Amino acid sequence: MNEKKNINDLIEILRKLRSPNGCEWDRKQTSKSLLPYLLEETYELIEAVEKEDYSNIKEELGDLLLHIVFQAELYREKKVFSIDEVVETISNKMIERHPEVFTNQKLKKNWELNKQKEKKRNSVLDGIPKALPALAKSSRIQEKAASVGFNWKSIDLIWNKIEEEIIELKEACSKQNESKIIEETGDLLFTIVNLSRFLNVNSEESLKLAVSKFEKRFHKLEKEIKVRNKSISDCTEKEMNEIWEIIKNK
After folding, report:
1. Which helix (H) or strand (E) holds 39?
2. Whose CA is closest to 37, among 68, 72, 5?
């Protein structure tokens, strides 16, 4: 039976893999070359959490931890910083951002304004990764703006804004103005995200659910067409819509 390992063991394993007699793949990796794998592992962890697959969550957390340790080790080799400094930095940050818990002092400003001051940012909206997917970025920007009072006062105002954006999109479509269609489509999507946030609904999770529902129904549509000894390419739009409605009603 293998001995129990801790994070120090993981660091030593990684250093051995990076050594001259270690693994060729691990030796040639750089901080940038690892980024695609880091992103992939992050999404795999998200998927495991969404499925509440505890065994897989444990495994994916380990995979993600490996990447964090790997990145830190690469910078230690360059004599920039170590994993211990990473831990120290985040620990101090958490204590400083929660003085009401650790020092019995109350924050005079809100979380976003404190971060703006700490990071010496020019805007409350700064600090959002440029590579963040647009849907998540929209929600995060709206949250930041709302934290300083720039927010809808009632849901009725958002409904009105959605109707306004739909009218503007229809007008752009009627004029076949391509650039305006793109702009107004974006405005409508942005407002829908705002509605989701106002309803305390995670827009990313909500859209994932809709996509998953569509996939399941479409698979059933394909299966039903096969049962009828037909190919989907041979079906008319009317036939597919009739089958789709049957599936929805079930």
Report:
1. helix 35-51
2. 68
Q: Measure the CA–CA gap between 59 and 142, rounded to whole angstroms.
A: 34
Radius of gyration of the chain (CA): 25
Task: Please provide residue 108's backbone torsions phi and psi, each rounded to the nearest 5 degrees.
Answer: -85, -25
Torsion on CA atoms 213, 215, 220, 226, rounded to nearest 10? 170
**Furthest-apart CA atoms within the chain: distance in Å:** 72
pTM of the model: 0.67
Angle at CA of residue 122, ends 117 and 128, nearest 5°: 90
11-25, 47-61, 88-102, 210-224 — which is least confidently predicted? 88-102
CA–CA gap between residue 173 and residue 11 (Å, rounded):
58
pLDDT digits (tens, 9 = 90+) for 19-73: 999 999 999 999 999 999 999 999 999 999 989 999 999 999 999 999 999 999 9
54, containing H or E segment: helix 54-77
